[in-house]
Amino acid sequence: MSFASDQYYEGAPLPRAFYELPALEAAPRLLGHTLVRRTEDGEIRCRIVETESYGGVQDKGSHAFNGRRTARTEIMFGEGGVAYIYLIYGMYHCLNVVTGTENDPQAVLIRAVEPLTARDEAMMRHHRGAAARRPVDLSGGPGKLCRGLRIDKSLNGQSLADQGGPLWIEAGKPLRSEDIMQSPRINIAYAEEYAAKPWRFFVKDNPYVPLLDKNISRYKPS
User: Fold this and answer.
1) pTM, 2 dp
2) N or C: fewer beta carbons within 10 Å in the chain?
3) What domain range includes position 70?
């Protein structure tokens, strides 16, 4: 079963209808697609290999839980297809893809990416500014990948559906649903009963994905 590319042509921007999906549907479907960052040094292309779903006002792990609308979360209540970027611990940026329809706050956290070529990897290492002995050290985590791709809050609200800007997503190579694993999300004990929901999705046996949870199972599409 071809999963990540669905009916999209490799290298083409994902259709806007894709971003209307609820986060729980969009999160596994984003795996295998290509995140593109344009810098003054050239473009960096990476395969999305790990995501987490944060969807709806009922999700206690979401910034928009219970309909919370602040200057930071307001972007989640808009139409899907834009970047939602915030800072954690005062030093690490996190990239999210806003999905869903207006006034229904949905977002997918991009947790890990894999550079497509040696040149992409070299550019990420240069921007990362830290030693990365293993693939997972380079871009296996939301803060790491944002540093490697020079993603910060200046890109908050950037359209991800339009090629040619500083940041966008293109359709990648087909990915079988059998190659996708799932587990509970990371570091959200505050989400109470929602902390155990298996809403983290990642590519099986990918070296850029940190295996941070033992409660891992094969993804079962609904």
Assistant:
1) 0.94
2) C
3) 16-200
The whole-angstrom separation of Cα 167 and Cα 86 is: 16
Count up the domains in the chain and report the number: 1
Indicate the helix (H) or strand (E) that contains 105.
none
Please check whether residue 106 lies inside any domain of the structure. Answer: yes
For 105, residues 6+ apart whose C-beta sits below 8 A from its C-beta are 55, 56, 57, 62, 63, 64, 67, 73, 76, 77
State the alpha helices, DSSP H only, in the chain. Answer: 23-30, 118-128, 135-139, 142-148
**pLDDT tens by residue, 65-98:** 988 899 999 999 999 999 999 999 888 999 999 9
Instruction: Determine, yes or no, domain membership for 100.
Output: yes
Residue 4 has pLDDT above 70, yes or no: no
Cβ neighbours of 71 (radius 10 Å) = 6
> Would 133 be classed as within a structural domain?
yes
CATH of the domain at 53: 3.10.300.10
> How many Å apart are CA 128 and CA 126, to the nearest integer?
6
Residue 27's SS3 state is: helix
- Identify whether 221 is part of a domain: no
